Amino acid sequence: MRLRHCILAFVCLLQCCMAGSGARNGGSGPDMAALRIGDRVLWVEIAATEADRSRGLMNRKAMPENEGMIFVYRSERTLSFWMKNTLIDLDIAFLDSEGRIVDVQTMKRLDETVIYSRKPAKYAVEANMGWFRERGIGVGAVVNLPPQVTRTVAED
User: Fold this and answer.
1) What residues contact 119, with CB distance under 8 A and at least 6 apart?
2) Which CATH number fits domain 24-150: 3.90.1300.10, 3.40.50.150, 3.30.70.1790, 2.60.120.1140?
3) What is the dihedral of CA 18, 48, 144, 20, to 10 degrees?
4) For the purposes of burial, counting CB atoms within 10 Å of the CB of 31, is it exposed (0-12), middle (13-18) or buried (19 or more)?
5) pLDDT (tens digit, 9 = 90+) per residue, 20-45?
6) Rounded distance, CA 83 to CA 41, Å?
7) pLDDT at position 16, please?
8) Model's pTM, two decimal places?
9) pLDDT band at 156 (very low <50, low <70, confident <90, very high)
10) Residue 104's CB: how many other CB atoms inside 10 A?
C-alpha cells in the first residue's frame, strides 16, 4: 500500500512539473505551446527573442509531423523570412494580433529569396510543407493562441 502511494505521489509531482514548465515534454528544451485550429493541434516552439527568431528552424534535418515554430513580434507589421540554412521545406502562416490567418506561403529549403507577408502580421507559424493545406486550413482560419504565446513579451 505504501509503495502505491509513493508511486501515485511521484506521478502527480511529475505531471505538475511538466505542466508548469511550459514545455510539452517537461524537458529542458525549448518552450512549447499547443496551437489549436479547429479540431487540429500543432505543437510549436516559441521564438520571441531576436536570436531565436534569427535561428528559427535552421540546420534541422526533419521535424515531427505536428510540430513547428511560432515567431512572436511586439506588433503587427509586414514580416519577412528566408530559408538560409533551413534543410526542410516549410509552410508559413502569418497571423494578425487576434490569431486570424492573413496569409499562407510555401518556402523551399535553402532558398535565400526573402518572402514577405502579404498583410501585416504579429505572428508567423512554420510547419512542414503541406501541413496547413492537408488539413484544410487557410486564410481566415482562427488559431487559438494559448497564454504562453499571447503573454510573451517579444523583442523587437
Assistant:
1) 78, 94, 96, 102, 103
2) 2.60.120.1140
3) 20
4) middle
5) 334 444 444 568 999 999 999 999 99
6) 24
7) 34
8) 0.80
9) confident
10) 19
